[in-house]
Design brief:
It comes from Pricia antarctica. This is GLPGLI family protein. By secondary structure, this protein is α/β, with parallel strands linked by helices. The protein has four helices and nine strands; from the N terminus they run H-E-E-E-H-H-E-E-E-E-E-E-H. A hairpin with a 2-residue loop joins strand 8 and strand 9.
Length: 201
């Protein structure tokens, strides 16, 4: 009975923050025939928690909490946080995008392709790290603005999609905020890929 109630509470928590994906503008008919799309990740507009903290405020909060628990662990956390974007979040997103497009459409999404005709800008707008206390947990949430532009003229927007509250969770326990948020980027990539494939191919 206890396990059932825990499962029920987790389901309710997850449904409260269901992912919402909306096409803001544009079409995706420019993608068929392309072999590669450049991807650029930006975090300039990212806020955290319901208070909409800046990243600087978030880092200070997490650093202080880590130091209270164990002196010196704040700097360890800062290093892990600084690396998370390039080593966890971005690879997770790209992995799920390419899992959909490479085999079926011979189209890859990669960073650093300055000669690609089109660029996908993944702008992270809001993050919630979630928490995990073993028995109870709350998934991370990732909100992004996903915009296809011409690489040579990034003011030329071809299509734009908003993704809100993509859930980041794993089977079992995950006590790493960065890993939970990474799963939110994976979910974003998976849902976005399905949407684009349906509209473009």
């Amino acid at each position: 009975m206890k396990n059932y109630l825990t499962f029920l509470l987790l389901c309710i928590a997850a449904s409260t923050f269901a992912q919402k994906m909306k096409i803001v503008q544009g079409e995706f008919d420019f993608l068929p025939g392309q072999k590669a799309v450049n991807v650029a990740f930006t975090y300039d507009n990212t806020t955290f928690y319901k208070e909409n903290m800046t990243e600087e405020e978030f880092i200070e909060k997490q650093y202080n909490e880590a130091e209270e628990k164990s002196k010196g662990s704040g700097n360890t956390w800062k290093k892990k946080w600084a690396a998370a974007k390039e080593t966890v979040w971005q690879p997770k997103f790209l992995e799920l995008m390419n899992r959909t497009f490479q085999d079926d459409h011979d189209l890859s999404f990669q960073e650093g392709l300055g000669d690609a005709k089109y660029t996908l800008i993944v702008d992270t707008t809001w993050l919630y790290p979630g928490w995990d206390a073993a028995v109870m947990k709350q998934p991370a949430k990732v909100s992004t603005n996903l915009k296809f532009v011409e690489t040579a003229n990034k003011d030329k927007v071809l299509a734009e999609v908003t993704s809100e509250n993509a859930p980041g969770d794993q089977w079992g326990s995950s006590f790493s905020n960065e890993d939970r948020m990474g799963e939110g980027y994976a979910k974003t990539g998976k849902s976005f890929a399905k949407l684009v494939e349906k509209k473009a191919f």
